[in-house]
Structure formats: structure tokens, C-alpha cells
Specification:
Largest sheet of chain A: none
Shape of chain A: elongated
Strand content of chain A: under 5%
Helix content of chain A: 55-70%
Oligomer: homodimer
Radius of gyration of chain A: 22 Å
Number of helices of chain A: 5
Largest interface: A-B, 46 and 46 residues
Low-confidence stretches of chain A: none
Mean pLDDT of chain A: 97
Number of strands of chain A: 0
Chain lengths: 125, 125
DNA sequence: ATAGCAGTTGGAGTTAACTCCAAGTCAAGC
DNA sequence: GCTTGACTTGGAGTTAACTCCAACTGCTAT
């Protein structure tokens, strides 16, 4: 698969794909004789993983560390597990905070609806 | 309340508080005769709101628009309500995505635990 | 009245994560 | 063999959201 095919399929720009690779977020992408990237299914799975983690808020740096550990071989299994567990915990906290914020917004919107129903009575903010 | 008091109380740096004010995220903060900011309880409530929304991912720009509408008076009640509803919807989507990512991480961590238990069998990535 | 500290400003600097660009290479079709 | 279009690289530019800085002002305590 060429970079533009992966780009379309994963909805990530070619520039970003190259950027991720350079940053160490992809494990050795194959090249054709001419030096052109030739992505495998496995690469795509990994790219999807990176995309998912990035959009959940994991930093490039954390993902770089994860793949760096990966390259060091299986004696880093525990370290990788722990890295993921740490990120999971942070994510869980943001998740709960988000839940609270959603409730807060729901409440605020309901207050707005009441204010609008009551002849456009102004609110504090 | 002085800026440093609010800073401690809300755990936001004085620089950020001034930055927010300049960006239009705070409705007219009072000043002493000498030109020093004198925050009210109400200001703090608003700052807390901004902090909460910011950490949920609402942009400075969106919050600026919200407070700009506010300053225009009560004929913007509906517009403000709709702005909040739009952001709420986006938040909800991120919330659900995060939920999926949490599950994915849980699964991945469990796969790691199995791999470690099975004599450190290496994984795909 | 002077030292010292907290506050003020405008503007410059920083960071993360892209995003764009110029100059060059390569494979395919005419 | 030449054009065309997708690919390559290193490096510069961009954006959002702070964060820092220098120069200045103004209370407060000695």
C-alpha cells in the first residue's frame, strides 16, 4: 500500500504519516526498491492504534516511548504493560471529569431553556 | 480578591488569568483605584466555569464567542443556548470515543498480562 | 522617603503537533 | 527519451494556548 492509499483509508494526511514515522510511532515501514514506502496490513493496524490513542489524548512522546520499548524486545513486556496501565488511569480520570462536565452543560442548557421560556430572563453568565 | 489569591484558589496562573481576560473569557473584572484587579465571588464562579470547559476541550475561541454573546444582552439567550448545545454534542462524541478507547486499552493490557504469564511471549505491537 | 514586594502592560518566547514547501527522484505511458 | 504525477527529504512555517520578561507603578512598613 502506498502512503496516499493509507492516508485515505485511515484518514490521516501523508505528512502526518511521515511525521509519525519519523517520531518513532511506527515500527519500520517497508520500502520498495525505489525507496517508496510500502505499508502492510499490519502497519495499518498499528496506524489505527496510534490514531485512536492520539485522539484519546496520549502524547506523541508517550507513544514514542511505547514503540521504543517494543523495539527493545520482549524483556520490555512488563514496562509496556505498565506504560499502558498508567495512560489508562489518566484516561479514566479525564473520562470521569468529562462525564461531570457533560452533566454541568446539561444543567446549564436546561437553565437557559427555562430562562428563554420565562420571557427571556437574563442569567448570571 | 487579588489575582494571586484567585490564582491559588482556582489553581490557574496569574498570567493565564490575565490572558483569559484579554481573550474575552471574563466579563469586566473590577479594578481598585490603583488599577489592580479586584475579583468578586462571581468572577471566581465564572473562572471555574472557564477552567472546567477548557479542560473538557472547549477552545478559547468558542468561550470567547459565548461571552461576547453574553455582553450583547439577553436577546442572545437562544444563541448562547445553541452554542452550549453544539459543544455539548461534540463533547458527548468525544466521551463515547474515550469510552471505546478505555475498553481497547483494557483489552490490550489484558493481552499483555496473558503474554507475560505465558513465559513472556512477544506480541504484534 | 526609600526599600521591597505585588501588581500592571505590551510583547516576545515556548511547546506540541502538525502542515507546508522546495528541490529532487522514480515509474509509467506516449 | 520525455512528460507527468506521485513519491522522497530536510527544514521552515503555523496554530493554539499558554508562559515569560522587562520596564514600570503603587502600596506598606521601616
Amino acid at each position: 500500500m502506498t502512503i496516499s492509499e493509507v492516508s485515505k483509508r485511515c484518514n490521516i494526511s501523508p505528512d502526518t504519516l511521515r511525521y509519525y514515522e519519523k517520531a518513532g510511532l511506527l515500527l519500520d515501514v517497508n520500502r520498495t526498491a525505489g525507496g517508496i514506502r510500502d505499508y502492510t496490513e499490519q502497519d495499518c493496524t498499528q496506524i489505527e492504534f496510534v490514531k485512536c490513542m492520539r485522539s484519546a489524548g496520549l502524547s506523541i512522546e508517550v507513544l514514542r516511548k511505547y514503540f521504543e520499548l517494543f523495539k527493545r524486545g520482549k524483556h520490555t513486556l512488563k514496562a509496556r504493560r505498565d506504560l499502558l496501565a498508567t495512560e489508562r488511569k489518566a484516561l479514566q480520570e479525564r473520562f470521569l471529569e468529562l462525564q461531570g462536565t457533560l452533566k454541568r452543560l446539561d444543567y446549564k442548557i436546561s437553565v437557559y431553556d427555562q430562562a428563554i421560556a420565562s420571557k427571556n430572563k437574563e442569567l448570571k453568565f
